[in-house]
Amino acid sequence: MKKLNVIFCGTPDFSVPALEMLFNHPHINLAHVITMPDRPAGRGQKLQSPPVAIFAKENRIPLIQTENINKEEAFLKKVSTEKIDAIVVLAFAQFLGSKVLELPKLGCFNIHTSLLPKYRGAAPIQYALLNGDKESGVSIQRMVKQMDAGDLVHSYPMPIDHNETGGQLYTRLKFQAALSLNTLVYELIDGSVTFKEQEHSLATFAPTLKKEDGYLDFTNKSCEEIHNQVRALIPWPGTWCSLNGKRLKVFSVEKSLKTTNTGNCDTSDGNLLIGCKDGTLRLTDVQIEGKKRCTDSSLINGMQNSTNEFKIN
């Protein structure tokens, strides 16, 4: 069986299992890995390589780090003579221009963590949870100039648990992406790959999230909406509100049978209960500004030394 000459483009740890699969695949020659440049990180702001770059360096795979692959004229001229069969893209954070899209013989393939055409864009995992979806999945599409709009070559649905967080779903999809890519590799080798046009009229979008998207508006949201917001935005950007004027991070919530007026805070039984638009939630796992993460009961006990009045906003 012949080997495919492949270029891989990716950046975060999410991309690494798929890259590792290609690196170890008996029918893949990993010609190049392309990723973003090193960035300052941590308290010391020291330069830190992306996980994909670390893997490529450790395994001596030819690596290029660039802000924009489309402007790497010398590199593109060089690889145009290498007879590249396919380019695989997973969480790369760059668009591919015409020069790159036309390079490989079999095409450029993007792995996306939604069931396209749903949730095109940067944050499909979080939007699936925010909207309370029952399933997510991995799609592989042949890339075109329009974002996430190419013909589908593979779709793998996965159920979502009611309490699953963004971090947990991220991990499951990360490994499913590698498995789905493995299937595509064999389809490309034996020529059995098929393409299906997306139903573009059904497309929805999942734009990049911001820190302010984590604010919990108990007054105007239902218990289910707050529950979905909290689990969707773990680990980033996280969710928060204000308790007695201090920022309170919220890591988990659960529905309470008690009744509390909308927007009010009830700590009478030692738990932190907040009234939402249609019911009452208990904030079970929290961290107030300047303190360690703890249960709501521990937080209330600690704060009752200084006050018996609790206000949330």
Broad structural category: alpha/beta
Q: How does the major sheet shape up?
A: 7 strands, mixed
Q: What is the number of beta strands? A: 15
* Helical stretch tally: 8
State the order of secondary-structure elements, H for helix, E for strand: EHEEEHEHEHEHEEHHEEEEEEH
Low-confidence stretches: none
* Proportion of helical residues: 10-25%
- Sequence of strands across the biggest β-sheet: 5-2-1-6-7-8-9
Characterization of this structure:
The protein has 313 residues and is α/β, with parallel strands linked by helices. Helix content is 25%, strand content 27%. The chain is built from 8 helices and 15 strands. Strands 5-2-1-6-7-8-9 form a 7-stranded mixed beta sheet. Strands 10, 11, 12, 13, 14 and 15 form a 6-stranded antiparallel beta sheet that branches. A two-stranded antiparallel sheet has the order 3-4. Strand 3 (39-41) and strand 4 (46-48) form a beta hairpin. Helix 5 (124-130) runs antiparallel to helix 7. The radius of gyration is 23 Å and the shape is elongated. The termini are far apart. The model has no long low-confidence stretch (mean pLDDT 95).
